[in-house]
């Protein structure tokens, strides 16, 4: 069995260690990280996946950003431990977190990643949305959680800096009164995905160059 839970402060060290293991040194130098610096994460949607022994095998995070002045979600990083590569855990976290994003009132999601991988989750290229350089425009992808949510939205992606909640809690979703609990799920036997990288085809973790 696996368990997916919202990330807590106690998970911070393990999540950062997982990202360090999966991604090359200097990952925080990527252009997408400039949109995250000093901005609270969206706590409802930052999830960790552990096995029955409590070992963290995968993690996903989201940040708020602005596109054309409209609030949007920036997905990533998402990572899967190399020992669990190919078991479909990245896809499980993607689908679960996107369901939670819709349930908590978000309208649209943005990421930087490989279109052939992320198209299976409904992501498509955003032609008029500009990530900070040197991001390859072909890798700027979006998903509508509400029909028409990306229609007419264009321009540069900029930082969103909402105030932190009392006690230093990170930002919650638009409908944060909805309780997003942990959930258990069986091992996805037969769901191996040979196209999933050791990092879960992690968004915004490959070269931002053209």
Automatic annotation (TrEMBL):
PROSITE patterns (alphabetical): GNAT (PS51186)
Signal sequence residues: none
InterPro entries given in the database record: GNAT_dom (IPR000182)
UniProt region (Disordered), positions on chain: 153-210
Residues annotated as domain N-acetyltransferase: 2-146
Protein name, UniProt field: N-acetyltransferase
